[in-house]
Design brief:
The protein is α/β, with parallel strands linked by helices. It contains 10 helices and 13 strands. The strands form 2 sheets. The chain has a 9-stranded mixed sheet with strand order 7-1-2-6-3-5-4-8-9, with helices on both faces. A 4-stranded parallel sheet has the order 10-13-11-12. A hairpin with a 6-residue loop joins strand 1 and strand 2 (26-30). Bound molecules: threonylcarbamoyladenylate and magnesium ion.
Length: 309
Amino acid sequence: MSTIEQAAKALIAGKLVAFPTETVYGLGADASNESAVARIFEVKNRPKDHPLIVHIANVADVDFWAGTFPDYAKKLADKFWPGPMTLILPRSENAKDFITGSQDSVGLRIPKHPVAQELLQAFSNLGGKGVAAPSANRFGQLSPTDAAAVKVELGESLGQEDIILDGGLSDVGIESTIIDCTGDNPAVLRAGFISPQQIEQVTGLAVVEPTSGVRVSGALKKHYSPRTPLQLGGKAQAGEGLIALASYSTPAGVVRLAAPSNTEEFAHLLYQSLRKADELGLQKVVVIPPHGDHLAEAILDRLTKAAAK
Ligand code: TXA
Ligand code: MG
């Protein structure tokens, strides 16, 4: 039996499977199995009322989880799935309270990473409808972007029959763009690789501000934190860590953790580099955030939360 088949069977049997996506690694359970989903919350130590994203194999599976699929959301799905985008849609009766945090909506995503695709397809072939998966970290910590980071975060809490799939370093490196499609116009709940400009172009609609009341844990003031104290901007002192674009030179004695050449590479390397600071036991890590494009804003959003006290 291939590793993927084994993992799909484990999900059907109610076990947890951590798997790579092109954004970050997810901790997956059968989204129709309440006790399996309950273990996600235990393992992550996550508040019970936070909704989970359901990962599906095909666009056809949207109708199982969503009560309605507005035209503009279909356009987004056609254009950006599989990919780093989550759509929030009105839920169907199959999306239970233990998935949605008792909200009337459900989050859906088709990831592009080949291992995620194979897993979701194998799971679907066995009759599975969707895999609920938050990022595979303890609540409030940095999302993992490789299998080793998943082990550091959750290794001790996972059981013998749970599985961690290794798919290398995640391409995008920060979490998916979350788009609320429950209103007449799309609203961005969490910035990411897919930009508001792209959303407006594809839907022909204006992107509006989110209405209050939707619960996004990434919207908490402090989130995505490394253990090492993080300073946004300023000058790194000898012995401290530094993450900045390659054009920024390293002061004497500073530990250069990453020197990405553009914002895409910055996002790709960010979480892994912050984890390196933890591993090295540095006193502090200074990050000089990039500027100028939409992805830079998404990076700044994560960094501001990571630096919050
Ligand atoms: O890139 C990603 O989105 C990764 C990979 C694994 O897919 N997943 C991820 O999941 O970041 P998580 O649970 O760490 O963050 C998902 C966010 C949470 O803040 C959650 O509150 C929000 O999505 N969310 C999920 N369902 C929602 C809903 N129905 N309404 C509003 N927010 C929702
Ligand atoms: Mg998360």
